């Protein structure tokens, strides 16, 4: 049944921001982070050292949490988000694990353990013959990633990330759950909301740089700090602050303070002063990129849509890419490294590897979006709707919610 209520036209500006942010993540991982993890993956025509894309995607996600949560019941809203995020993630984890098992054993020059169970979970015998062996994921890694508890176990060497990009999923789910619990509370006045946003920025900084000692802090304390995503909550705070400002509920000067504080928090949390190198090639590009993108988010939130003549012509392609950005985010990093190494093994030069890896990521992102994320989301939410109100057709909630996919 179509929604009879008027719909706001889709804004090109938000799609542009999502696409720029997700491609910044992809280019940084392929051209820079890949070489840090696997020294042989070099030779690209340029390197993108800036780290701001994932943070901006979370800012946008937080903005649209406010825009969508106020439209319905928190429980239904939260289920909608979980149904959109989790199934595609679980499929991506399984695919990445199977592909990584095969590829890393081959790249390291190890023999395959016998049988299907041996291939999936066995330990290859003998020393690797490749001078730069790749880590072979284990069954414990698979379970840890399926449970989204990687941050709680890697410091104790219990399991490791199958893909470094997966850190955003548990952080988002924690934030969405907190939003659903706090939104309907009667004590949630405007002043308390603003105070909470400042606390989300300042308290984690106080804990990390004043309360915790970088040398003597126990692993357990660090595990809780990072496992709960406290080093990332400032991006949700600034996203909510921008939404309040867009609704004329926050003054210009107050938003400016929020933006400055968020930029400082982002820089300190990613490049803490007791660890950062004086000439770190990542720090300034990351800080400047994050600040510029935050300003563009503010322009998109309160300014006119970016319907420039040249941009309107490519709007369908930009909208399509924005629509698959969550799938892109899920499959581009570790699978991209594996594809890059396979191409390197057959002699493909860096200038050609880069577009091939990016194109493969787009294809994979489309496949997991069209084949898993959207159909499973429709099925799960339809079952919930029929159970809640049998016999009554429900209005479709089509707002994407994921990293890179909030709309």
Question: Can you walk through the features of this model?
Answer:
The chain has 407 residues and is an all-alpha fold. The chain has one domain (12-119, 142-388). It has 17 helices and no strands. The chain has helices spanning 12-37, 53-69, 74-107, 115-121, 139-146, 150-153, 168-182, 190-211, 219-227, 233-246, 252-270, 283-302, 309-313, 315-323, 325-331, 334-345, 350-388. The longest helix has 39 residues, at 350-388. The two termini are 21 Å apart. Mean pLDDT is 90; it is low at 1-6 and 392-402.
Q: In whole angstroms, how far apart are the ends?
A: 21 Å
Largest sheet: none
Give me the strand/helix succession: HHHHHHHHHHHHHHHHH
What would you report as the Rg, rounded to the nearest angstrom? 22 Å
Tell me the count of domains. 1
Mean pLDDT: 90
Oligomerization status of the protein chains: single chain
The number of distinct β-strands equals 0
* Uncertain runs: 1-6, 392-402
Query: Which percent range describes the beta-strand content?
Result: under 5%
- Helical residue percent? 55-70%
Q: Structural class given helices, strands, pairing? A: mainly alpha
Shape: globular
Tally of alpha and pi helices: 17
Task: Give me a quick take on this structure.
The protein has 407 residues and is mostly helical. It is 66% helix and 0% strand.
